[in-house]
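User: quick one, sequence for these tokens?
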């Protein structure tokens, strides 16, 4: 235990044990329905699978370290110069690189409580401190975050939609926030659930994101996107950031060589071409969010309206025990005790069949426990 304790760096020594971001290993051992990690229930795009198969024949060679073809493709898609795109091994690698590039002992980053757990890990690994502000109405409190900025702050992390609440920030509030955030702070606009949120916004006749206009106006922002969610490639580890070229250049220096594999680059490129798979994914998500939301409300659970591919739901009872019972019934969901919300769960929205299975299991457990408490009180 103490053999290397005095030898490792201070951040390595002092970091809290990083909580696993996925609840356990993949559910290969049984037919467990996995609604706990916001993965695509339809799997990867078939086109991506085909492209990755083809790429296998070339894995004796190193990948393109600059991810040139993908970067060019993303730059065109987003109408930005290539220098403003950095491809990383999942968007979490970019979170890590940015923290290494900007933070250190005595510095801090600001985010909301009940947000993406990785923010804490990357900030502490860089030897800095994460400041978490309380939420307001289950969403991010942008003013409270502004108020906590000091001269030692370098990064603000905004997950939009937020994980695990599924909420989006009000655009007028975000505009105001962006105009007031001081120049020494970089704002990370984490849009991991972009495609889902954009689809919901279209259905609701609302606007979701103005992130690119902040960038064009010269703001210090990094927009994070990933292939892990709507594109169904979470196991492949590929994502990207769009931001000021100079800042991304510093991040790129900290990146480990060849961290994005050739298979990942090939899979991501092909996934971008598969609009059919993406459309199927986001339309199923929106219609199933509606069905699940209604059913959960009918069971008297409090559901937060979502803009992502999961629902945050207050059970009003011990969520960890409910999660255990659901697991025994064959469904894995995420209890939010790690986020300080011991009565809440996060359920990834699955296929219609998976959601139906989940709802039936939940109402069965609910019924059994009400019988049990009913007989106890008599
Ligand atoms: C899932 C998720 C990501 C994606 O991380 P990857 O490293 O790209 O898999 C990023 N941010 C948030 C808030 C997420 O929920």
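Assistant:
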């Amino acid at each position: 235990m103490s053999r290397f304790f005095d030898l490792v760096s201070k951040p390595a020594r002092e970091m809290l044990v990083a909580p696993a971001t996925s609840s356990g290993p993949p559910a290969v051992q049984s037919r467990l329905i996995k609604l706990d990690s916001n993965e695509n229930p339809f799997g990867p795009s078939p086109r991506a699978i085909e492209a990755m198969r083809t790429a296998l024949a070339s894995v004796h060679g190193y990948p393109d370290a600059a991810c040139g073809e993908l970067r060019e493709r993303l730059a065109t898609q987003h109408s930005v110069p290539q220098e403003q795109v950095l491809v990383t091994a999942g968007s979490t690698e970019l979170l890590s690189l940015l923290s290494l590039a900007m933070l250190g002992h005595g510095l801090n980053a600001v985010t909301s409580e009940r947000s993406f757990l990785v923010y804490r890990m990357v900030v502490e690994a860089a030897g800095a401190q994460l400041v978490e502000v309380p939420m307001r109405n289950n969403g991010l409190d942008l003013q409270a975050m502004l108020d906590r900025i000091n001269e030692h702050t370098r990064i603000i992390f905004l997950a939009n939609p937020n994980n695990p609440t599924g909420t989006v920030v009000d655009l007028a509030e975000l505009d105001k926030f962006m105009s007031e955030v001081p120049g020494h702070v970089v704002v990370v606009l984490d849009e991991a659930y972009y495609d889902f949120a954009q689809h919901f916004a279209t259905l609701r006749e609302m606007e979701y994101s103005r992130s690119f206009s902040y960038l064009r106006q010269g703001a210090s922002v990094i927009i994070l996107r990933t292939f892990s969610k709507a594109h169904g490639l979470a196991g492949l580890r590929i994502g990207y950031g769009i931001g000021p070229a100079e800042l991304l250049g510093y991040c790129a220096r900290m990146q480990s060589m060849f961290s994005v594999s050739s298979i990942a680059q090939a899979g991501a490129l092909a996934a971008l071409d598969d609009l059919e798979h993406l459309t199927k994914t986001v339309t199923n998500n929106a219609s199933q969010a509606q069905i699940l939301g209604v059913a959960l409300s009918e069971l008297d659970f409090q559901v937060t309206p979502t803009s992502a591919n999961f629902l945050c739901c207050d059970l009003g009872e011990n969520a960890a025990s409910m999660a255990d019972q659901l697991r025994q019934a064959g469904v894995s969901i995420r209890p939010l005790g790690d986020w300080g919300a011991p009565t809440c769960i996060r359920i990834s929205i699955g296929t219609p069949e998976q959601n139906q299975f989940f709802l039936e299991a939940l109402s069965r457990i609910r019924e059994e426990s009400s019988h049990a408490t009913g007989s106890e009180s008599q």
